[in-house]
Model the fold of this input.
Amino acid sequence: MSSRRYTAVDLFSGAGGLELGFEKAGFDIIFSTDFDDYCEKVHLLNRPEIPFLKIDIHELDEETINKYVSKPVDVLIGGPPCQGFSTIGKRISSDPEKRVQFDPRNTLFREYIRILKNIRPKFFLMENVEGLKTRDHGTIFEEIKRTFSETDYEFNYVVLNAADFGVPQIRNRIFFYGNRVGIKMQPPVETHFENGTPRWRTVGDAIGDLAAMPDNKAINHVALKHRETNIRRYKLIPEGGRLPETDLPSDLYRKNFGNTFKRLHRDKPSLTMVPGHNAFPIHPWLDRSLTVREAARIQTFPDDYIFVGPRDKQCMQVGNAVPVMMAYNWAMKIRTELDKYYE
Done:
């Protein structure tokens, strides 16, 4: 690997998972942007030296971009908000004619591509949930491919599982990637395996040492104060299992038991970390949900990375992020291709 420094711009940066992975691989971030107040606070707290633009992506015009981009950009990265595509929760139609159901987040990929054409980096990487492939019978997926094909970028897409790249979590995501410099690029190669060597990393590997640690002895490591009813429910959940929905005492029954009533297994990767109001799964052997720090460990954030705001906002910051090690593997792959280009 060369010692050359490459540059990146990060759109829809959220809490910065993609950005951290690219920084770890030696990329210089020219600027990043997001519309969320708390993501701005996270960014300014953790990496104040990198310009952050708190702006509606629709208002990120050429004049604003040119204030920050004074040299060629090697790669554009970003993950347009994906809740409109997710298979978790209610999925909302992308058809503007269906005004009640329309979710504007389903069209933010167009803004990514608009800025791609404006900045003209050599490479790009765009992440989203796997569910967009089948959303509206594939209509959105086909539109994304068509819109990319109208650029002069050669592009492709792949679904990857973060567990295959050193992340202790089953997390399938789709990545669109490509370049305009004529390189036939392949996605990164798996580094960890379910039935090979090295094996998938597990929840126990990631968070085992935090179980006996008192609140606040690690950053963002504060256990949620659960109601007694929920604690009684948690005690019924076997490791690696979920709350049985039959034969429950009447006072413990409720509708729609979700991820919050699934217990992780210490010897397996985690379920997908999802955002939401305190929505993390149950600790493998403690009768409580994961702390924000434990979830961040599972997302492979470093321990000195600080999340801010109310707990539900911290959960969203962690759950929405691209796992740092997943981002790092992509960054190293793109770096290798850039090294070839500059030879």
About this structure: The chain is about 30% helix and 15% strand. The longest helix spans residues 324-342. The mean pLDDT is 90.
